[in-house]
Design a protein that fits this description.
The complex is a heterodimer. Chain A is mainly α. Helix content of chain A is 70%, strand content 0%. Chain A is built from 8 helices and no strands. Chain A has helices at 3-11, 14-21, 25-51, 61-89, 91-95, 98-121, 136-159, 173-178. The radius of gyration of chain A is 20 Å and the shape is elongated. Chain A starts with a helix and ends in a 10-residue tail after the last helix. Chain B is mainly alpha-helical. Chain B has one domain (3-154). Chain B contains 7 helices and no strands. Chain B has helices spanning 3-11, 14-20, 25-51, 61-89, 91-95, 98-122, 126-154. In chain B, helix 2 (14-20) packs across helix 4 and helix 3 (25-51) runs antiparallel to helix 7. Classes of the chains: A mainly alpha, B mainly alpha.
């Protein structure tokens, strides 16, 4: 069974249809996703801006990380849970949505950025903790994070407006290729 | 001219037409609005959490507020610059939307509160802040919650 078949059968499940068509459930989950975004993205931006030396310059980076991290982690967990629920309500169309795919790639890159930051750059934080402008590696990590998260928000918002939808043919061949869309098999 | 006429006038403007007739302009502007919301949330939360005794509690409230201020003002500018075109493109719908008016009322109140009472509280001496800080943070967060809730819910009506 291919991933596409899996999504197709998941889309036909009563859970998926029920959540998608619920009057308050779906909008509520979407609202929670945005509130969690405020908590996660908002505080992540403050931290990234600190890495760039653009705010809270007198606060040591490790202090900011220690004090804000629990909140960003909490926000991130709620985002992943609510995001998974949103996906489960519209699995097939999301799976074949170019913006969804772009968003997932960006998320993976943001994850790599965090991993590099924590295993390499942040390990030597004592050396530059109080610098108002941290070293170039830390500034780069902050800049990458900002750019990636802005792109994630952009592609995330576009998912709902997908004008490259598989059921709106004809689409450029490259789009159908990138979204695993086979126009003749489209169910819509 | 009634308020409804006023809204309709804007909806029929060239800007309103352009946004409505494009498949990507509305979501594109919305994405800017969402980024603005996130940065505003960060600049507000870092201060409100501090007032509640969380977050950057080893630093004076006044310093945290001062550092966050330019980012609050900058992101609010982005919110207005993106929010107004969005409103213009669907002004009549907004006029009849309960969520829209909840949002506008909360927004008016929270801006008023932020730049008067909250501003004064965050500039107080540390001892005075402790007694009033929590209440200030609660009011601020509750009003911002109303703004975000109303905003998201405009799209569902």
């Amino acid at each position: 069974m291919s991933l596409l078949d899996l999504m197709r059968s998941f889309a036909d499940s009563s859970w998926s249809i029920g959540l998608h068509e619920s009057r308050y459930g779906y909008p509520l989950v979407e609202s929670i996703h945005v509130w969690a975004l405020c908590l996660f993205f908002g505080l992540a931006v403050i931290f990234d801006l600190r890495l760039l030396g653009l705010t809270m310059k007198k606060v040591p980076v490790s202090d900011l990380a220690r004090r804000l991290m629990p909140w960003t982690v909490a926000g991130f967990i709620v985002m992943v849970i609510s995001g998974t629920l949103l996906f489960s309500a519209i699995p097939l169309r999301s799976y074949q949505n170019i913006f969804f795919r772009v968003k997932m790639v960006m998320l993976a890159l943001a994850g790599v950025n965090v991993w590099i930051f924590h295993t390499k750059v942040y390990r030597r934080v004592e050396a530059w903790d109080r610098d108002s402008a941290p070293p170039i590696a830390a500034r780069l990590a902050g800049a990458f994070s900002l750019v990636l998260w802005v792109c994630i928000i952009f592609s995330g918002r576009m998912i709902a407006y997908n004008w490259f939808d598989c059921d709106h043919q004809p689409q450029p061949e490259i789009i159908n290729y990138l979204t695993s869309c086979v126009p003749s098999e489209s169910e819509y | 001219m009634s308020l409804l006429n006023f809204f309709q006038f804007f909806e029929q403007s060239a800007l309103g037409d352009t946004i409505r007739n494009s498949v990507w302009l509305f979501p594109f502007i919305e994405a800017f609005h969402l980024v603005g919301l996130g940065v505003t949330a960060g600049a507000v939360l870092v201060v409100d959490l501090r007032l509640l005794g969380f977050g950057l509690r080893d630093y004076p409230v006044s310093q945290v507020a001062k550092d966050a201020q330019p980012w609050l003002l900058g992101s609010l500018t982005l919110m207005f610059a993106s929010g107004i075109p969005l409103l213009i493109s669907e002004a009549t719908k907004c006029y009849y939307s309960f969520a829209f008016w909840v949002k506008m009322t909360s927004l008016f109140l929270v801006l008023l509160f932020t730049f008067t009472i909250k501003r004064r509280v965050t500039m107080m001496d540390e001892l005075e802040v402790i007694s009033r800080g929590k209440m200030t943070a609660f009011v601020s967060l509750a009003l911002w919650f109303g703004v975000a809730w109303g905003g998201r819910w405009i799209g569902f009506s």
